[in-house]
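Quick check before the chapter quiz. The format below is the same one you will see on the exam, so make sure you can read both the input and the output lines.
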Amino acid sequence: MKPKIGLAALMVWCAAIFAQVLPGYAQTLGEEPRRGSVERTQLLNTVRPAAELELGLPVEFVVRHLRVDGPWAFLAGDMQKPGGVAIQCEEIRHPGDCGLMDGFSIFALLSRQGDRWRLRDMHIAPTDVSWSSWPDAYGVPCQLVLPDTFCR
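Here is the expected output.
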């Protein structure tokens, strides 16, 4: 008889994987825009409206990784309310979704078009590595969005 893995155990396992993967995440490709730079501000301001629409409240980002490589940019971070206040589940547009979310993390793919950035895809609080399809779907370099060990 196969052992059954409960949802809670599966979520703990996913969190452990994220904890191992994210510290050295996507450091092999691209440059991180300097804090306070025009480019960094433009990138975050491109993602912000979609995130705020999804959650239904103003957000600011705690950036874990923000990398730019040519026409591509990748953001991995967490969201909070302005001023560093934690987001509570009952405050978001669809509070019933909180049971399906892994905190208030955000992963976003952007592309440069001329002198502007465009949001190509975004995942909020995924419980898996849902953005792993972006290299195939968009042609973005794998090492920009995933650690080297995940890239062919």
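If your answer matched, good. The longest strand covers residues 60-69.
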